[in-house]
Amino acid sequence: MRSARVDRGDLWFTLAVLVLALLPRLFVAVAWAREPVWDGHYYHFGATRIADGLGYSEDVLIAGHPVWKPWCHYPVGLSGLLGLLYKLFGSSIAVAPIVNAVLGALLVGVVHRLARLHLGETRARVAALIAAVHPGLIVYSAVVMTEPLAALLLATAALVAGLFGPRWAGTLGAGVVLGLATLVRPTSLLAAPLLVLMGPRPWWKAAARAAVATLLALLVVAPWTLRNCRVMDGCALVSTNGGWNLAIGAI
Fold first, then answer.
1. Of 10, 29, 198, 207, which has the maximum CB count within 10 A?
2. Which residues, other chains included, contact 182 with Cβ-Cβ below 8 Å and sequence gap of 6+?
3. Helix or strand or coil: residue 58?
4. What are the angstrom distances between the C-alpha of 207 and each of 29, 32, 157?
């Protein structure tokens, strides 16, 4: 890992590339905002229920009457964030894409700072610029999906681990962020062992830190898991759509 001396010019570039990334994402978010479909429909639906004070739930018809029922088919993370913002700004179809535009721009800033820990100034800037103008990342702002938030949290976990180096604060901070990422996209938990690659040597010490981060991530998720075990008809770590996701494109 290279020295990550932070100078004013470097930070100004981070801010500039973040703004550069935000502008096209905001345009796409506003111009292409549509009624959410497929998975996006359910993330939006879950967020509106949370914003309305009904929790992560749905109404089912029993004997012709709507009955409140807790829900965990989809991960709660994105809906939880959107639910808070819907409470503040309303649940119009443009809100979620604008949120994704901001998350996507923040991801570019994190990419630059993360790359700066491991690369020289020029290559880190190239990495940030690629992330800023990548068409796929820009277009993704218009859809209500978990990818922008999940990617931001994963990159932030790596950045936190790198910034603090051998200090335990980095390990603990990365574990908390990975826990939040798991609530957004459960497969994010599989990234925790990769912290071994960012830990101090010898390898056993790096592995111990990665194990602590993984445990902390699970502790962050634990209250939601306990909620699922208590109110659903079976336990689920985060959601029950994992097998469904694995089947997509495979059957």
1. 29
2. 77, 188, 189, 217, 220, 221, 238
3. strand
4. 41, 45, 16
- Cα–Cα distance, 35 to 103 (Å, whole number): 20
* Close Cβ partners of 86 (under 8 Å, ≥ 6 residues apart): 47, 48, 50, 51, 95
Question: Are the C-beta atoms of residues 145 and 37 closer than 8 Å to each other?
Answer: no
Q: CB pairs under 8 A, 24+ apart, for 20-24?
A: 20/108, 20/129, 20/132, 20/133, 21/104, 21/105, 21/107, 21/108, 21/109, 21/131, 21/132, 21/133, 22/101, 22/102, 22/104, 22/105, 24/133, 24/138
| Per-residue pLDDT in tens (0 to 9) along the chain, 251 residues | 444 456 777 899 999 999 999 999 999 999 888 888 888 899 999 999 999 999 998 888 787 788 888 988 899 999 999 999 999 998 888 999 999 999 999 999 999 999 998 888 999 999 999 999 999 999 988 999 999 999 999 999 999 988 887 788 888 999 999 999 999 999 899 888 888 887 677 888 888 888 999 999 999 999 999 999 999 888 889 998 876 656 666 66
* Closest alpha carbon to 134 in 23, 9, 17, 21: 21
For residue 64 the two structure tokens come to 């012709």
Which among 211, 185, 250, 228 has a CA at the least distance from the CA of 55?
Answer: 228
DSSP letter at 198? G
CA distance 88 to 207: 42
Nearest 10 degrees: Cα torsion 225, 229, 232, 236: 50
Single pTM value for the model: 0.89
- The first and second tokens of residue 78, run together, are 């994105």
